[in-house]
Amino acid sequence: METLMNAIVKAEYLKHPDEQVKLHMKMKFHNSTTGTLDFVVSESKDTINKLNNVSEILATSKNIGVDQVSLPPSM
Q: Which domain of life does the protein's organism represent (predicted)?
């Protein structure tokens, strides 16, 4: 869908040579921004997974018991 829209917009702008540069820069900006946002989303998903793992480990550790041991008085 996006490719078709880009083609339509591009065809209209190519009628005017000075608009070609503007269109090219807009498309570069769009692609760069999209790439950056994809990276940020990917990193935040990774961070969420890591935080969920830590949360699970902490929840599991609450259930771990330690036996009480008495030390001799000479210590």
A: Eukaryota
